[in-house]
Amino acid sequence: MSATSEWITVGALADGFMPEAFLLPHVNDFAGKTHTLHFAKGGAIEHRFEADRLHWHADDGHSTGSAPYRATALRPSIYLVDFVKQEQGRHWSISLVLDVSAGVFTAVIGALPSEADTQRGLYGRALAGEPLTGVEVQILHGSLNDASRASQCHHQPTDQLVGLRNRYRYSPTEVYDHIYLNEQFYTWMCLKGVEKGLCDTDRCHYIAIAPELFLFVWREKIVPTLGLVLIDLKAHRSDGKIFGYAGEDFTQVSNFPVASHCQVVSRLEASE
């Protein structure tokens, strides 16, 4: 890259990450099984799994369909299931953390801004009191296969990552640092790879899944991007995905897996 780094599309980022040497294998543990998600806020969606495809049906009929999916497991009985569905004229990113042993789940539902929305300036958004990113996200919780427990025992928001600087080696050619600033924002920087020299501070969300296992979600504002990874501080591994527009014409989306070997570089202690 030149001394002046350039922003690239998510599709170009996906090309830079491939081939991905550190990906976790797709697991077929759910093939032939059905899991129903009972949401704490009400409603349920049944998911019927095949080896590489799942079918879903909402109990109120608002959503029905099927799509290819990827399922991985950083830890036994805790799975990340990821797919994209197309409804209401939009592509929706769906990521499910299925904690089978605890009988609970977290669902992350995301959507990208329209082309017109991306043309709005950050200053205008700030003056209007709106998020600086147009990437939308919902984080929902509930129980697996037991409606009576839908309002109990959820994964919880956490501040345990705040103050950490983590280094993520996604491949021999792609290395990033994350600095977790507070409960709402983090800073990322590319040390090596197709985005070398780029950095920014973006909106993020942290969810505690199990001891030393966290779900981290981020929403970028310059190039509209939804990122999501499970971070295992004990095993020094992460696994997740990046979702965004493949090109500059806003017609195709890219949803590609990312996994890393990671380590804590430093930890800042909060001052009074």
TrEMBL record:
* Protein origin, superkingdom: Bacteria
Q: Where is the MoaF C-terminal domain?
A: 155-267
Query: Which residue windows are transmembrane per the record?
Result: none
Pfam families, alphabetically? MoaF (PF10703), MoaF_C (PF17409)
The record, for InterPro entries, names: Calycin, MoaF_C, MoaF_N
Q: Where is the Molybdenum cofactor biosynthesis protein F N-terminal domain?
A: 5-113
Q: Where is the signal peptide?
A: none
Listed name of the protein = MoaF
List the source organism. Answer: Stutzerimonas stutzeri (Pseudomonas stutzeri)
Highest lineage ranks of the organism?
A: Bacteria, Pseudomonadati, Pseudomonadota, Gammaproteobacteria, Pseudomonadales
